[in-house]
Design goal:
Elements lengths: L6 H11 L13 H9 L2 E5 L25 H6 L3 H11 L3 H9 L4 E7 L32 E8 L22 H20 L7 E5 L9 H16 L7 E4 L4 H9 L7 E9 L3 H5 L2 H9 L4 H15 L3 E11 L10 H16 L2 E4 L16 H6 L19 H23 L8 H19 L15 H7 L8 H23 L3
Parallel strand pairs: 1-2, 1-8, 2-3, 3-4, 4-5, 5-6, 6-7, 7-8
Helix pairs in contact: 6-7, 8-11, 10-12, 11-12, 14-15, 14-17, 15-17, 16-17
Pfam families: Cellulase
GO molecular function: glucan endo-1,6-beta-glucosidase activity
Keywords: Glycosidase, Hydrolase
Length: 504
């Protein structure tokens, strides 16, 4: 087994550059390509149990684990750990898996990692922790134009009580300050190493500071978030930072709104409907309806939060979700799971800048798991076979028509905008609206034309409000005019592109 030195960065570079001959994803290198990766619509999946193991997903690495045989540390303490993990890292995700995802229009993967996976980059990240004796780690795979969100799933001291936080020990992250300080050191190590990699890694979409933390108090977690955001900004002020909402989405939305930030901040909400007593007693059709009905609590919350984050130059993603329902919810109808998945995708596409299914694959068995395993869900017809806008006709040579349509729609939207505000006397900068509309259209086109998508899908502007703020230096009283125009222009460009250049 190889030491971790350089493995994460090297592996991610392989994801970008070592494409198979049949890949149709172009090579990427520029600062603009990095921005497109980060601000596009993130239609993704979690690569669960690749680096941070979960026994319910794959049992094989635990065959010689030490009791209670539930966590990474238990595997590391067991017999033949190096051989077992070397084989697992090399085989769990391979080139064919990235090709499969790219061909179906997925744009991003979320990769859960543990702090101990950076020990070769900086051995001090495991000093004084449960993993002090174990410095073996990761081998990764190839890239087909997929963005990578790195998620710190296992922090020093454990940020929650689950075994997927790295050990089977009780959580101590919020009980001892040393663990919180040490975690910032780990994150600094990761960001420093990724940023220094040569050639540059253009497909890092962000860093998630902690997965599903269970804080002693929200103030304590938010204070730590603020310290980590400020610290990492000194290393890379443009790197997007993802924050778990602890299932208190509106409360953490307010936190992001009040937090100074130079980079994109993204709130990560996890949505499951199979664990609580209420979940179990709710039939599958009712679960689906509660997500599709715009007047129901969850869609209303999503709409409200997405609008607030967008206005704050931030964004909302669902970092984990699945098609899994408790058997008590299933009615026996053949489309229970399919309709539930469709309801979630409709909700996420309407209000979120991204969504990541949990999980990509599970250990093979006699019965496919269409609720938790993406491969089984797609092959079983409960998850769409393709995602995103799929271009069927080239827009090359059609720019004259596109500009004519853009200007006509801009004039129409400006007239409606001026007409509305004429009812409220005041000094308005209506030219800012027109400027924003034209730029929103042009930037949406830029994402479509970037070639970053796979399998015939195109990249789409996802974090619209955050991107709009990066596109003007004038953040004064006319900013809201510019932003309103920008969003309308981007939406109009998407509608026209869908109508004229995409397969229906």
């Amino acid at each position: 087994m190889h030491k971790i030195t350089g493995k994460i960065a090297t592996s991610l570079h392989k994801l970008q550059s070592s494409r198979s001959p049949e890949s149709n994803v172009p090579y990427l290198s520029s600062e603009l390509d990095t921005s497109i990766y980060r601000f596009r619509k993130q239609r993704g999946v979690n690569l669960g149990s690749w680096f941070v193991l979960e026994r319910w997903i794959t049992d094989a690495p635990f065959r010689h684990a030490a009791p209670p045989a539930k966590s990474d540390l238990d595997v590391a303490k067991g017999q033949h750990a190096a051989t077992i993990m070397e084989a697992h890292y090399d085989s769990w995700i391979t080139t064919s898996d990235f090709a499969w995802l790219s061909d179906r229009g997925f744009t991003t993967v979320r990769i859960p990692i543990g702090y101990y996976h950076m020990c070769g980059v900086d051995p001090s990240v495991i000093v004084g922790t449960d993993f002090a004796e174990f410095g073996d780690a990761i081998e990764t795979a190839q890239n087909f134009g997929l963005g990578v969100l790195l998620d710190l799933h296992a922090a020093p001291g454990k940020q929650n009580d689950d075994a997927h936080a790295g050990t089977s020990n009780p959580a101590a992250f919020f009980h001892e300050r040393k663990y919180r300080t040490h975690t910032i050191h780990v994150l600094r190590t990761l960001v420093t190493h990724l940023k220094a990699h040569t050639p540059p890694l253009v497909n890092i979409t962000g860093i998630e500071l902690l997965n599903e933390p269970h804080p002693s108090s929200d103030a304590e977690l938010q204070n730590w978030y603020s310290a980590a955001i400020k610290d990492l900004a000194t290393l890379d002020p443009a790197l997007p930072i993802y924050l778990s909402d602890c299932w208190k989405t509106e409360q953490y939305t307010e936190y992001i709104k009040s937090t100074p930030h130079s980079s994109l901040l993204v709130l990560d909400h996890h949505l499951y409907r199979c664990f609580t007593s209420s979940d179990i007693s709710t039939p599958a059709p009712a679960h689906a309806h509660a997500l599709m009905d715009d007047s129901a609590p969850t869609p209303r919350m999503f709409a409200r939060v997405a609008e607030m984050l967008d206005a704050a130059g931030a964004g909302l993603v669902v970092g984990e979700w699945s098609g899994a329902l408790n058997p008590g919810s299933l009615t026996g109808a053949p489309d229970d799971t399919k309709n539930y998945v469709a309801a979630q995708l409709q909700l996420f596409e309407a209000h979120c800048a991204g969504h990541f299914f949990w999980t990509y694959k599970k250990q093979g068995g006699a019965h496919p798991d269409r609720g938790w395993c993406l491969r089984d869900a797609v092959e079983g017809g409960v998850y769409p076979s393709t995602l995103g806008l799929r271009q069927s006709k080239s827009a090359d040579g059609d720019q004259e028509r596109r500009m004519r349509v853009r200007d006509n729609l801009k004039d129409k939207a400006l007239g409606e905008h001026v007409g509305y505000w004429s009812k409220y006397p005041g000094k308005y900068k209506h030219d800012r609206f027109a400027e924003g509309f034209a730029l929103g259209w042009d930037d949406a086109d830029m994402f479509f034309a970037s070639g970053n998508g796979g399998g015939g899908a195109v990249s789409e502007l996802g974090f619209v409000g955050a991107w709009a703020k990066t596109r003007t230096d004038d953040h004064g009283s006319g900013l809201w005019k510019f932003e309103h125009g920008f969003k309308q222009g981007a939406a109009a460009a998407r509608s026209d592109f869908l109508e004229n250049y995409c397969s229906k």
